[in-house]
Amino acid sequence: MTPSRSELLRLLTGYHPGDEAEQRYRVEMLDLAAAAHDPFDRAQYEPGHFTASGFVVHPDGEQVLLVHHAKLGIWVQPGGHVDADDPSPFDAAVREVREETGIDHIRPVTRELFDIDVHVFGGSGDQPRHLHYDLRFTLIADDATLRSNAEVIAAGWFTLGDLAGLGVDESVRRPVGKVLGAGD
Questions:
Q1: Is 4.10.520.10 the CATH number for 5-179?
Q2: Are residues 164 and 158 in contact, defined by beta-carbon separation less than 8 angstroms?
């Protein structure tokens, strides 16, 4: 039950980019969604494939969940590949959040996109360098208790002011600003 191309196109056509970078990403994503045999195929490296992630807001509404990713060695939002048995990209994002952080009680702000990003995955093991076309969703945690796993070195709750000390790039700062109501 691979997520459908029609659902992917619906998400992307319904999304309203917040800046020029996101507008470019949206055009690239629509092109890939229309042209790729399977836009979610994690073995599609040229140019890449779609992923899904979740920006999870702490119950206090003042912090966002980030993970220190073991393979990447950087702080990012929880997320990853869309699996064939994920009913939708949204469901893939929720599954990835649960797997990487142990949070079970999360609820969507909406099942629609709130951010999009295209970024380079530098390669690892048998995976060459390629692009990740990331579909991003906003979730709210009902409980702030975290349990990490082997995919992450650490997980934690952070304010917008904490991000500079973590060394996160614009692909994380921009959506955290949106989620916490700070904008850009």
A1: no
A2: no
Query: Token pair 């119950």 is at which residue?
Result: 59
Estimate to the nearest angstrom the gap between the alpha carbon of 51 and the chain centroid: 7
The candidate with the shortest Cα–Cα distance to 41, out of 136, 132, 137, is 132
Alpha carbons 66 and 184: distance in angstroms, whole number: 19
Residue 39 per-residue DSSP state = T
- What amino acid is encoded at 124 in this protein? S
If you average pLDDT over residues 128-144, what whole number do you get?
93
Which residues are CB-contacts of 113 (< 8 A; sequence separation ≥ 6)?
Answer: 11, 12, 14, 15, 135, 136, 137
- The dihedrals phi and psi of 37, each to the nearest 5 degrees, come to -60, -50
**Dist CA 160 CA 155 (whole Å):** 16
pLDDT of 45-89, one tens digit each?
889 999 999 999 999 999 999 999 877 788 999 999 999 999 999
- Spatial contact of 114 and 137, defined as CB atoms under 8 Å apart: yes
Judge if pTM exceeds 0.90: yes
